[in-house]
């Protein structure tokens, strides 16, 4: 088993996740099977109880794990399926060690950080790295391990100590480290000087902690000048080819191309002795990896064309001050734009600014927000928790419904679409949500009875679950047509506590225009809503963004974006009914034509 450790220095948020994912993609392009582990030094058991405005989105895996958002990068880049164990936190590892101590597993020893905690970390990495991550069920060849935070932080110390020992456990030629550092420009601007001192100090910190970087990946505003690369190599005691420039590019999809241009694959091959890998990649895996890489390059370069039409999507959300809070949503729209051969213009709209109160307190923001909604080609209302901004979301949904603007509601967005329709189309007095409008006369959204109300962590309806399309929807449903009339059910990942009230379904559906197109496998819980007479008005209880991949976009987002771009019929006619979209196959078909 081969291991690649990706660590970071100087500042947090330097791009370790994208570089780790890009490294995995390059390895996969060589015919290797790749898995990933993200280490987060925080004390939380998982990311489920953390505010999205502080930590970014909570990503959910098939098995219901609530994970760090970098797990999403890994799955999107590598077309892999990871588990809750692929995200290791301080909380998880301390919990494991303490439980072992309580059982008496340590046979009366004094339990300490070293060696008991550090050994547990190494055992965890070694065990999880063996878990198959693709349909072949083969054990991975390489595991990319990302250490979150910044080397030198006190909370990272046990993990760094464990990883320094793990290098020896893995053995020579089986472990390499990429250290991601930031090279600032002083003063900022095209003529400022690129400063290497922070990187020198960061590498010193890593070595002092017991690790020795094999590659230094330098994040910077513009390509490093030759003399700067030379200085970093000299001062950090590495070869020139071990200093990589990862400068700003038009999209993160260019980063793998940037690394390959600097012969990063050759460096990995040498450092990990991949030529001697046993068993070596089969011809099928080599061909698949090469083909995958070819399509990635084609997609990425096609998005740089200045001839692409722009499609504006208004994302009406609660956490728009931190784009990472909706990172999978944004990526899913990018995937759909690639597939439709359009340019995405994503407009962030704070839902609170659409409410009447904002008209008095922040008139400029109010009018700006409504201008964005009224001029958008499509309106998207994503998930969220709490009452803030939800009345603004309802107003945006009403605009989309009554003005025939393509609309997609996800989780909370779907629930609010039900509330809006119940209020304004069904004229149901006091229609609301038990979460947002406690004590309302007609709660159309209710708390799921099986959910534990006493705890927050890991108590929602989580993970991949079935959605069964309802009878008599195949002939008209635009959403279902994306999957094909013969597809009776799909599987998507969920994360919610509230649902459409079973008692109100008949009332809402009575006019026959607003239809519950998809339900759970028992036929009791709403999964998909759609308005028959609308160009594209769809709400989904699940989070389709969790399963969208760069080379296999989500059909929920693809259909919505295609409708906003005016190409829904074309996209449905060409790819509807093919099951999960495989971008590699689809592009190959286009090239053959």
UniProtKB/TrEMBL annotation:
Residues 2-274 form the CTP synthase N-terminal domain. GO terms for cellular component: cytoophidium; cytoplasm. InterPro entries: Class_I_gatase-like, CTP_synthase, CTP_synthase_N, GATASE, GATase1_CTP_Synthase, P-loop_NTPase. CDD domains: CTPS_N, GATase1_CTP_Synthase. Residues 323-550 form the Glutamine amidotransferase domain. One of its GO terms (molecular function) is identical protein binding. Keywords: ATP-binding, Glutamine amidotransferase, Ligase, Nucleotide-binding, Pyrimidine biosynthesis. It catalyses: UTP + L-glutamine + ATP + H2O = CTP + L-glutamate + ADP + phosphate + 2 H(+). One of its GO terms (biological process) is pyrimidine nucleobase biosynthetic process. Its EC number is 6.3.4.2. The keyword Ligase applies. It is an enzyme of class 6 (ligase). The keyword Magnesium does not apply. It comes from the Eukaryota. Signal peptide: none annotated. Pathway: Pyrimidine metabolism; CTP biosynthesis via de novo pathway; CTP from UDP: step 2/2. SUPFAM superfamilies: Class I glutamine amidotransferase-like, P-loop containing nucleoside triphosphate hydrolases. Catalyzes the ATP-dependent amination of UTP to CTP with either L-glutamine or ammonia as the source of nitrogen. This is CTP synthase. It comes from Ophiostoma piceae (strain UAMH 11346).
């Amino acid at each position: 088993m081969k291991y690649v450790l990706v660590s970071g220095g100087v500042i947090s948020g330097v791009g370790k996740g994208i570089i780790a994912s890009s490294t995995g993609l390059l390895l996969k392009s060589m015919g290797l099977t790749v898995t990933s582990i993200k280490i987060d030094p925080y004390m939380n058991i998982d990311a489920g109880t953390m505010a999205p405005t502080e930590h970014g989105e909570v990503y959910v895996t098939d098995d219901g794990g609530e994970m760090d958002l970098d797990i999403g990068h890994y799955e999107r880049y590598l077309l892999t399926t990871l588990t809750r164990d692929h995200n290791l936190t301080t909380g998880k590892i301390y919990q494991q060690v303490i439980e072992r101590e309580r059982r008496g597993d340590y046979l009366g020893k004094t339990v300490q950080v070293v060696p008991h905690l550090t050994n547990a970390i190494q055992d965890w990495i070694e065990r999880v790295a063996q878990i198959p991550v693709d349909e072949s069920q083969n054990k991975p060849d390489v595991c990319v391990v990302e250490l979150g935070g910044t080397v030198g932080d006190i909370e990272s110390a046990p993990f760094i100590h464990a990883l320094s020992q793990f290098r020896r456990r893995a053995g020579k030629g089986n472990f390499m480290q990429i250290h991601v550092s930031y090279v600032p420009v002083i003063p900022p601007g095209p003529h400022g000087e690129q400063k290497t001192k922070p990187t020198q100090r960061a590498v010193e910190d890593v070595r002092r902690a017991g690790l020795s970087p094999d590659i230094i990946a330098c994040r910077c505003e513009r390509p490093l000048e030759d003399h700067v690369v030379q200085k970093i190599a000299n001062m950090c005691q590495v070869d020139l080819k071990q200093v990589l420039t990862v400068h700003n590019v038009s999209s993160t999809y260019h980063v793998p191309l940037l690394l390959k241009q600097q012969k990063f694959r050759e460096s990995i091959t040498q450092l990990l002795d991949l030529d001697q890998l046993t068993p070596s990649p089969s011809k099928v895996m080599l061909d698949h990896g090469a083909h995958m890489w070819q399509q990635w390059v084609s997609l990425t370069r096609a998005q740089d064309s200045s001839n692409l039409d722009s499609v504006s999507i208004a994302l009406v959300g609660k956490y728009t001050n931190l784009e990472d809070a909706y990172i999978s949503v944004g990526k899913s729209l990018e995937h759909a734009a690639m597939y439709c051969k359009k340019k995405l213009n994503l407009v962030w709209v704070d839902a609170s600014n659409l409410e009447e109160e904002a008209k008095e307190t922040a008139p400029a923001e109010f009018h700006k927000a409504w201008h964005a909604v009224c001029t958008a080609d499509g309106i998207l209302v994503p998930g969220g928790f709490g009452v803030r901004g939800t009345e603004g979301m309802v107003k945006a949904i009403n605009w989309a419904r009554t003005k025939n603007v393509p609309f997609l509601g996800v989780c909370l967005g779907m629930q609010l679409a039900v509330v809006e329709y119940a209020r304004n189309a069904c004229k149901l007095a006091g229609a609301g949500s038990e979460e947002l409008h406690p004590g309302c006369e007609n709660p159309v959204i209710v708390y799921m009875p099986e959910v534990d109300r006493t705890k927050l962590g890991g108590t929602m309806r989580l993970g991949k679950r079935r959605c069964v399309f309802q009878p008599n929807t195949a002939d008209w449903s635009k959403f279902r047509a994306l999957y094909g009339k013969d597809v009776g059910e799909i599987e998507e990942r969920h994360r919610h506590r509230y649902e459409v009230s079973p008692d109100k379904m008949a009332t809402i559906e009575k006019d026959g225009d607003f239809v519950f197109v998809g339900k759970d496998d028992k036929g009791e819980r709403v999964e998909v809503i759609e308005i028959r007479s609308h160009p594209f008005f769809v709400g989904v209880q699940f989070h389709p963004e969790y399963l969208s991949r760069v080379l296999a976009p989500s059909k929920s987002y693809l259909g919505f974006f295609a409708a906003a771009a005016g190409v829904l019929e074309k996209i449905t006619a060409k790819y509807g009914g093919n099951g999960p979209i495989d971008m590699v196959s689809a592009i190959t078909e286009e090239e053959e034509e």
